[in-house]
Design goal:
Blueprint lengths: L8 E5 L10 H15 L3 E7 L10 E2 L2 E6 L8 H16 L3 E5 L7 H6 L4 E5 L11 H17 L2 E4 L2 H11 L4 E2 L26 E5 L8 H11 L5 E5 L6 H10 L5 E5 L3 H9 L3 E4 L8 H8 L4 E4 L2 H4 L8 E2 L4 H13 L3 H14 L2 H17 L6
Parallel strand pairs: 1-2, 1-5, 2-4, 5-6, 6-7, 7-8, 9-10, 9-12, 10-11, 12-13, 13-14
Antiparallel strand pairs: 3-4
Helix pairs in contact: 1-13, 6-11
């Protein structure tokens, strides 16, 4: 256990950086590590130089940042950065090295060879993402095996991932989900200036613009639904990638579809709070923080029928078959007129109870203690 005289030293690898860096793991880390610092841990996060400029503060809410170079290349960025970060960890000798995601977990054996205690969080089977080729998928599966078999302690962010690890590797995980910071209202019935959105009259998706988030499906379904007076707001960073260009081409000059770019802070809160519907049509998720956030605002939600979404146990009218644009259009029409306010409030209450960051931080600290004590099970 950590104490003021002997704080637990935690080094973190596998993420781009935070605060305000887009990505599910980055959001997870942004909420988790300040809370662990408040519990007495000495937390150092190794961040990637392209996402964390040297001008940024080196400490934030009790968390220390160390910038290490990483190439801006989708296939090499995480691997090269984690390799360099593992060498850095071998020099720093933390009590716990916490690696996030199965790609960076490829270096678990190297970290163990250096005598480090390693905790790996499995955020989802990234080899199922549509953007990866055959070799990249092979490397990701190898990283999953390395992390789940060789780490001192394994964390899964969902029961679905826990079962996958048990089935494939015969290893138990501690299930510690993503959390949610409940919004404190009431919020003004307004949206950020310049977006042209009317409160309660727009469909919202908040996510990165990558193929597995399937913005194209949502655009087609929204047009098919013909929601009179409604708009579609797609929130996320518009990087210069072939997929982003395909989204822009499909949107064209449609005045009813708004590409907001990356949003955070108060602006993002206002966008969530005033949405009429939230949709996540993804083909791949670990446990989507954006969907949890939407539910925390008591917004009616619609999600694709994939294991990560089904684990939230919504009623059937909240789901549609993955890739079925016609069924999604029907759900949009139904959701627009659905008045189940009590159900949305009930889901909000459950989210507040089941996905509390304070409890998540305590469970993560317990997992660290288990790894140090040499226990393979930590419930």
């Amino acid at each position: 256990m950590t104490s003021a005289d002997n704080p637990l030293r935690v080094l973190v690898l596998g993420l781009r950086g935070f605060p305000g860096v887009e990505g599910g793991i980055e959001t997870h880390a942004e909420h988790l590590y300040p809370r662990l610092a408040a519990l007495g841990c000495r937390v150092e996060v190794v961040v990637r130089s392209p996402y964390q400029p040297a001008s940024n503060p080196k400490e934030w809410k009790g968390v220390t940042f160390t910038r290490i170079w990483a190439p801006r290349h989708a296939g090499l960025e995480a691997l090269i950065h984690t390799f360099l970060g593992t060498l850095y960890a071998a020099i720093k000798r933390p009590d716990v090295l916490h690696i996030h995601a199965i790609g960076p977990a490829l270096f678990t054996p190297l970290a163990r060879l250096f005598g480090l205690r390693v905790v790996v969080t499995h955020h989802g089977p990234d080899y199922e993402r549509e953007k990866w080729g055959r070799f990249a998928k092979f490397v990701l599966k190898l990283g999953e095996r390395a992390g789940m078999v060789i780490a001192n302690q394994r964390i899964a962010i969902s029961k679905t991932i826990e079962q996958r690890v048990m089935d494939q590797y015969g290893q138990r995980c501690v299930v510690i989900p993503n959390g949610i910071e409940m919004p404190i209202g009431p919020f003004a019935e307004t949206t950020p200036r310049g977006l042209g959105l009317t409160p309660q009259k727009y469909v919202l998706q908040v996510s990165r613009f990558v193929p597995e988030k399937r913005q194209l499906d949502l655009i087609h379904a929204f047009r098919e639904a013909r929601l009179d007076g409604w708009k579609l707001a797609l929130v996320g960073r518009l990087d210069s990638t072939p997929y982003v260009e395909s989204v822009k081409a499909l949107v064209g000059h449609d005045p009813n579809i708004v590409l907001t770019g990356f949003q955070s802070g108060v602006a993002l809160q206002e966008i969530y709070a005033n949405a009429g519907l939230f949709v996540l049509p993804s083909s791949h998720e670990g446990l989507p923080i954006a969907l949890l956030e939407a539910m925390s605002y008591a917004i009616p939600v619609i999600a694709s029928c994939i294991p990560a979404h089904l684990e939230l146990s919504l009623t059937l009218n909240h789901y549609f078959l993955l890739g079925d644009r016609t069924q999604l259009a029907a759900r949009l029409r139904e959701g627009r007129t659905d008045t189940t306010v009590s159900e949305s409030q009930r889901l909000r209450t459950r989210i507040a109870s089941d996905y509390c960051w304070k409890e998540i931080a305590q469970k993560t600290l317990s997992a660290y203690d288990c790894s140090i004590a040499g226990r393979t099970q930590c419930d």
